[in-house]
Here is the input.
Amino acid sequence: MTTTTLKTRTILSLLLAACVHAAQGAEPLSIDQRVTQLMKRMTLEEKVGQLTQYSGDADPTGPVAVKGSLRDGISSGQIGSIFSAKGTRSIRQYQDLALQSRLKIPLLFGLDVIHGYKTTFPIPLAEAASWDLEAIERSARVAAIEAAAAGIHWTFAPMVDIGRDPRWGRVMEGAGEDTYLASRIAAARVKGFQGRQLGDTDAVMACVKHFAAYGAAVGGRDYNSVDMSERMLWETYLPPFKAALDAGAATVMTSFNDLNGIPASASRYLLRDTLKGKWHFTGFVVSDWRSIEEMTAHGFVANNKEAAQAALSAGNDMDMESGVYRENLAQLVHEKKVALADVDDAVRRVLRKKFELGLFDDPYKFIDPERERAMLNKPEHRQAAREVAAKSIVLLKNDRAVLPLSKSIRKLALIGPMIKLGVENHGYWSVTVPEVDYAHQAVSAWDGIAAKLGKDATLLYAKGSDIEGEDRSGFAEAVRVASEADAVVIGVGERWDMSGEARSRSKLDLPGVQEELIKAIVATGKPVVVMINAGRPLVFDWTADHAPAILYNWWLGSEAGNAVADVLFGDVNPSAKLPMTFPRSVGQIPIYYNHFNTGRPAPNPTATEWVSAYTDLINLPKFPFGFGLSYTTFRYADLKLDRQTLRGDGKIKVSIQLTNTGKVAGEEVVQLYLRDRVASVVRPVKELKGFRKVALAAGETRTVDFTIDKESLSFFNAALQWNAEPGDFDLMIGASSADIRLQSRFVYAR
Ligand code: GLC
Here is the structure.
């Protein structure tokens, strides 16, 4: 039977049922009624099929399970979702198989569209450095437009794990260390992915992950255990999930880690009590890759059957990749070890989303090769990628105003192993789109700079060294090339896949001999700009102290080289601020700005006697949370509070006057921090409670406003009650967490 005939028959049968229903003059059935009708016709095996997901034919993102024949599983209704299938051609083939099944329940297609589909955007940690919620939402919007045009219904994003440990390779995928910033970015990403409404063919379901506290793995070692107080869990790690759900996130993915002794994929506390209970979540939960089966390895269950029982009963609706639901759930129901009602609840949640997406009305609605060709990599998509990439580049240092470089420079030396990288700029978790030549989809720094300067400038090149290894034989050539030039740009960093999943590192130095290469080039005395590519904070102490100018470029996606050139030559004034603290040494980790004061705070960065400090290291990060420079300067002045006491549910209006005191336009991220001086549990020395990204022309002054209310002061007390406590508060307005420009105090009185 051809696809068209099949499609026609399916649509006709569905339309006929709807017509009969309408002819009886009844209201059109609600989605829940349609789900109920369908479930009445389903066997237990078919129900289990809806809770089973496998990766498709594309590159796996984990250790691949032996899953027998996908084809047979799909056409017999034993598989309800496929992920990592790419492109409308491949997805149509899978959907055709699903429509051969008895009930013709369409497949749900998921994919890790983490920072772009064919147009790749900066890695999420880089975008977080932009602090630009509109740009971040737009980036997710474009990713959804492209992914949905390619047949995808569902992205496994946003990842909202708070990351305080840069040894953990997956910090690249999140929004950094701060709960307030990460929560706002989580909401922006969900809105971008899900667009106007689910079912639109330019929108995909979001999947907020990894539930929960995956980023707090002991030692920053991926998949490692997590143990923390419930208070810390609720105050620091859960709020970004709640923000994503409040923004309408359709699904949730569990995390690999055990949390306080219970693997998250079978945590009744997380899934039933918190997510589906306290938070009234009506979407569905998918496990992470084989995380249900892995509970045997955790030592939480003895075998796959017990794993299936524990996970489903705890509220984990869909089994990604392990097949343990497919192999055991029906038997567990027959043995009354799993309640049929729990299976039905899970199936209902999954089917409800398939109806919401409109897949029962037209299983092929997202499969349109014409739309796919039209939507992927559109010029406006690449322009959006270029703009947010430039906004994500952090200017860490700019002594003697080496930057911006002049566009009329005659000879520019481009040195280092990163300069000519192309596809690597996509970074980890980019989507390799099989049917196009992926290699030409990322602009290298070399190409971006060459395009910017045109034929008048002479570009000199020397690789100097590899990213890794001890080979210094390229140094002499690099020094020679640098000596001939008017200025030097050095591109160094970690390899694109040194951060990402299962990429924890015990050392964070620039790999290989790259910092020696920098030393050799700096020794020439030429104006030197060091650009660093990485998916995490790295340690580069010597460079930070001796190179005159440093740009932190993360991994910037398809338009990397053009964005770099825009910032290098001043067409874009850098405005990014660090979303994570940069340590001086791995030995300082975990290090984050919103720490408690302790009973023996160091009175100054060099104190060590009987205080909380290291005796062998200055007690400061290398670069603090919220730090980033600009080509212009800003004056913060005239802090005003409209009252000094906040009562009950009242508000305090806060304002400052921000002036661009430089010669070029620029954007500044004004940050508002609070400190609760005395409380029933110790409180951080400061907490971000507001920020405004403000664009100002040279010489322009703007009033920047904030509002403080009881919610701004609230926290979880020892009894896990969310409340504000009366007392004194410090209010700080800063250009970073360590650069407080204006201060005041107020009192909160119930
Ligand atoms: C991976 C990741 C998860 C991803 C999933 C599917 O192991 O942990 O974030 O969405 O598998 O690729």
